[in-house]
Amino acid sequence: MKTTKATKPTPVKPVAKKVAKKAAKKATATTGKTTGVAKKAAASITKASAASKKEAPAKKAVPAKTAAKTAAKTAAKTAAKKAAPAKSVAKKAAPAQAAPKKAIAESHAALVRRARRINRELAEVYPYAHPELDFENPFQLVIATVLSAQTTDLRVNQTTPGLFAKYPTPEDLAAANPEEVEEILRPTGFFRAKTKSVIGLSKALVEDFGGEVPGRLEDLVKLPGVGRKTAFVVLGNAFGRPGITVDTHFGRLVRRWHWTDETDPDKVEAAVGALFPKSEWTMLSHHVIFHGRRICHARKPACGACPIAPLCPAYGEGETDPEKARKLLKYEKGGFPGQRLNPPQSYLDAGGIPAPPLGAG
User: Fold this and answer.
1) 323: how many CB neighbours lie within 10 A of its CB?
2) Cα separation of 136 and 344, whole Å?
3) Pairwise CA distance, residues 219 & 26, whole Å
4) pTM (two decimals)
5) Cβ(284)–Cβ(119) under 8 Å?
6) Close Cβ partners of 222 (under 8 Å, ≥ 6 residues apart)
7) 69 annotated active-site
8) Going by C-beta distance under 8 Å and a sequence separation of 6 or more, which residues neighbour residue 257?
9) Cα–Cα distance, 246 to 252 (Å, whole number)
10) What's the CA gap between 30 and 79, in Å, rounded?
């Protein structure tokens, strides 16, 4: 009888290595890096190949290859499962508030229509809008406006009754003792500089204008401490001549509404003035400033309580939840006192509350 030579077993090591390499690559593609699972799978395959070396029969080679494939699949599945929680976390991380609207390009005509509609809406919300400085004549208004720099109208209104009781006319204030005036103006801040301005302004009125406040822009801006903003407040509210008052509230809101990108007050005045008839300028200023003080605040606007939210490109910068937004409202909108000690009757009829005098509990 002829002796048949035993068939040599198919080498397992190269096959196992090849499969292990594929498994590692597949796991890396799933997770973005070689995971510990893939490494363990590769190690187990190497052990399997070492064990299969000892087995002589060729038939044992096929199960080793199958085992390697099975291990590779298991490694890939396990790696995919580990990667899955990251996706679910990402889904849960959705923002709680609505993101601000993106700026939409609009034609000049569309901008004019939107701006005028905003002003009409604000006129309905604030039919009682008015200058929030107490005054009885142009002299009191120009002095109060100069004092309002770097402080609130409320603080000025609490301070000027004492000032005007002691110095009721430009002649009186021009001849005042600076130290006594400083003491009265101390609550308004920057009281030394303000004292110098109001005394200098009063002297200029006496010497150059016969003790009367002039009614022309070019004359007003020559007075110490009086710029275009102050001049337009006086012209619009003491003389009935249209003007745009660009204070911090006005500038902030018109930029939020994309009426202009300008930051210089004179350029803001020119850009916004071009959107409205001149006859609307004074009341437009009151509407915007009222809205800025009551609802569209600098740090946390009450977007959820804003009547012009559908027209505002910046909607979502502040609190959008209606209940939370209502808690941010100020002055009569939030049930709090306004800024004037002696506000107009229309303001009181609308539910406005007069401010308390200085030193009141």
Assistant:
1) 9
2) 12
3) 82
4) 0.71
5) yes
6) 204, 208
7) no
8) 114, 115, 118, 311, 312, 313, 314
9) 9
10) 7
Is residue 100 within 8 Å of residue 316, measured between CB atoms?
yes
- Is the pLDDT reported for residue 81 higher than 70? no
Instruction: Give the pLDDT confidence of 242-298 residue by residue, as tens digits.
Output: 999 999 999 999 999 999 999 999 999 999 999 999 999 999 999 999 999 999 999
33 catalytic residue (yes or no): no
Cα–Cα distances (Å) from 311 to 16, 33, 117, 143, 208, in that order, read 67, 48, 8, 37, 48
Which segments of the chain does DSSP mark as H helices, in order?
13-31, 36-53, 61-92, 108-125, 138-147, 153-166, 170-174, 178-185, 191-209, 217-220, 228-238, 248-256, 265-273, 281-294, 322-326, 345-349
Model confidence at 8: pLDDT above 90:
no
Question: Which residues make Cβ contacts (< 8 Å) with residue 19, sequence separation at least 6?
Answer: 45, 65, 68, 69, 71, 72
Measured over the CA atoms of residue 233, residue 235, residue 236 and residue 238, the dihedral's sign is positive
Residue 99: what are its φ and ψ, rounded to 5°?
-70, 150
Crossing angle for the helix pair 13-31 and 61-92, nearest 10 degrees?
10
Find the catalytic residue in 247, 321, 324, 330.
247
Q: What is the pLDDT of residue 25?
A: 54
Of 171, 167, 163, 165, give the one whose Cα is nearest residue 204.
171
